Amino acid sequence: MKRSPHQIPDLTTEHLEEEVLERSKTIPSAWYVHPAYHEIDRKYVFARSWQYVCSTAQLKSPGDYVTDQIGGNPIIISRDKDGSLKAYYNVCKHRGGPLAMNSCGHSSVLQCKYHGWTYLLDGSLRGVPRFDRTELFDKKDFGLTPVAVQEWQGLVFSCLDPENAPAFETVIEGIAGRIAPQDLSKLKFFKRDTYDVKANWKVYVDNYLEGYHIPLVHPDLMSVLDFRSYQTETYPYYSLQSSPLKDGDNIYGSSEDQAFYYFIFPNMMLNILPGRLQVNRVDASGEASCNTVFDYYYDSITEEDEAGRIKQDLAFSDQVQAEDIEICEFVHRGLGSNAYDQGRFSFDLEGGVHHFQKCIKRSYRSALNDLAAE
Length: 374
Prior knowledge:
Naphthalene 1,2-dioxygenase Alpha Subunit, Chain A, domain 1
């Protein structure tokens, strides 16, 4: 449903103004809880950004494919015969049926699971059952709709609207050099977990982007990070929270090691620790709900690893997520209450949240301009 800017509360030039951290207010509560913003996020935030999908290891050979969704839009990515990646909407041009219904697989062609229309891996329509008497029909007009795809550090990204998105190289510029000599592409994919959260996706991202809550919400995490040295850096399209690790009984490493927590706008996290990587993606499922996807990568995956450090790592991660989910769901209810509209930032500990909300304002300015022009 199309809406004019006047139908969307607090989508105004006043609320879109950017101020320096020490003077800035947080974004209005309506941006979290009003249904209109769910539509805006799907069209103007997720569709116009590069979204993490999977590991390149899941697309090793020609014919390998994975399915996923971006802002509620189903996509399919496959390895073509020439070794390149091809990405399309997972939507048949006949009547919207799926080309694949499972999360991954292998096939030399893409065949709709509804009526059997068949496409080559280059997206061209090849087979159309029982269409010989349909007039003015040309298969060339019914190829799959492509989406952009990129590989980086062993990870696969896709974008629905690359014309209105920043160039991928611009988005990730500087990250590989900062984390060197660690090469993420050498880590092995282990598993994916998904959590359902009864809170707006921006609540979850806000929470990730600050260490302010760690002493109260995550006492065990507090025991492994040197919180006194916790730092936040911001860049055009991402931010970095980093902390040295504490000595002692530390599941992550020693004081010679660092924990790097990268956030890539709008909804991706790279949690880089010695010998391991978590890639997180936060998907908006509604104005009051989101799904958080956790992909785990390790430098070694032996039976001994699985029974030891990996089991311990997964249990610790699950505990942290349970703590985050609980507080985020309480925060979402608070944002929707009569008592709250806008707050303020801690200069020392909420620079990452301020940066994220500036990026949201940038996306919403684009939305406001487009809506006004409709």
